[in-house]
Write a structure and sequence with these properties.
This protein has nine helices and 14 strands. By secondary structure, it is α+β, with helices and mostly antiparallel strands. Bound molecules: ligand DP6.
């Protein structure tokens, strides 16, 4: 705890602990990918993402004091209205891990109810939005019971990171950077910060998420990160990510959409190449993923319109484009890409402002 950068010596609360909070936190789509980590959830390279708005988790967090002194909280967790053992285990282990920093949670009965606006484990970063929503609830509770002026966003991002690396970026509005880079002032491996000074075209960027398969992934992100430790391309990859980050920031400052899109596609293909070159190797793309990629590249070369793809750790394709081509691209997606999706499922997302308090 000695390296912990935030103050935790709050006065004891005199309030009766009984309340309910509800937060909504978005997913995010990484343009520069975080893939490989060390220590306690520290990234092997800096990453940059667009915070989304339509793919989100809503979390209701109720707390009540339990009679008698207890060191651990009693946690009940439900997902989409049902008990979910796998998620519950992750939440319990997360809350237990952060108890030294939030000791007031100790003697409480915590009821956590969570739902997503999108299918979980589908390659959309569900751990990002769910951990971000949960941490916002905990930080908000701390604010309420200790009468703090505001939620410290850096601190929220720090704890979201401990839950899931990419969650640290979901706390940030519009464009989040997680990981130290010497060219980005204020950047750190501990939490995410907001990119400053970029062309407004990126604030209005669209991300239509084509759900190719909503099934569970064969290899989780956590297992994928671990395989980077033995990947012979790892060092070159971390160097590439840093170079790509510098180029991307420059492109975003200049409003250079084509360079932005090129880097986004390179990063997506590298991510999947790293999976294919892991030992054991694995492939998360599906034939439809490749078909969509080819269609997007053909459409771009035929029309010259700025439409690009990126991929998360899964088969789904994120179609990225600026707002000023939304009519043409919307038509293209409906006519040429929708047929590759599972049951026509597309989440029409856009860059957004980060977590919102619902009550
Ligand atoms: C491919 O943040 O899900 O989406 O820290 O183990 O929870 P953990 O991993 P996670 O990894 C996300 C990987 C990625 C790229 C990215 O979001 O940067």
């Amino acid at each position: 705890m000695k390296d912990f950068p935030f103050d935790i010596s709050y006065p004891k609360s005199e309030h009766e602990l009984d309340g309910t909070l509800k937060w909504q936190a978005p997913s995010n789509i990484a343009i520069i990918k975080y893939w490989g980590k060390h220590g306690r959830q520290l990234p092997n390279n800096p990453s940059l993402s667009l915070t989304l708005s339509q793919a989100y988790t809503e979390t209701k967090f109720s707390y009540k004091g339990l009679p008698g002194s207890r060191e651990v909280p009693k946690i009940t967790f439900s997902f989409e209205g049902k008990e979910n053992e796998k998620f519950a285990a992750r939440i319990v282990s997360f809350i237990t891990g952060i108890l030294p920093y939030f000791p007031f949670l100790g003697g409480l009965d915590l009821r956590i109810e969570s739902r997503n606006s999108f299918p979980h484990s589908s390659g959309i970063a569900s751990s990002a939005s769910s951990m971000a929503a949960l941490v916002m609830c905990i930080c908000d509770m701390e604010k309420e019971i200790f009468g703090l002026e505001h939620i410290d966003i850096k601190k929220a991002s720090y704890f979201a990171r401990l839950g899931s690396g990419s969650a640290s970026r979901s706390i940030i509005s519009e464009v989040g950077i997680w990981g130290y880079d010497q060219a980005v002032g204020g950047s750190t491996d501990e939490y995410s910060i907001q990119l400053e000074n970029y062309d407004p075209v990126f604030s209005g960027f669209h991300d239509d998420i084509l759900i190719i398969s909503a099934g569970e992934k064969a290899v989780s992100s956590s297992a994928g990160h671990a395989l980077m430790d033995g990947n012979i391309f790892a060092r070159a990859r971390y160097r590439q990510a840093r170079n790509n980050l510098s180029k991307l920031i420059l492109a975003m400052q200049k409003g250079d959409i084509h360079s932005f899109g090129k880097i986004a596609e390179d990063e997506a293909l590298t991510l999947h190449a790293l999976m294919m070159s892991s030992d054991p190797s694995y492939i998360l793309m599906k034939p439809e993923t490749l078909a969509v990629i080819e269609q997007i590249r053909a459409y771009r070369s035929d029309t010259g319109l700025p439409v690009f793809f990126t991929l998360d750790a899964g088969p789904n394709v994120h179609v990225l484009y600026p707002a000023f081509v939304k009519d043409e691209v919307g038509y293209f997606i409906n006519n040429d890409l929708k047929k590759y999706t599972q049951n026509g499922k597309i989440i029409q997302d856009r860059v957004g402002q980060g977590p919102t308090k619902l009550f």
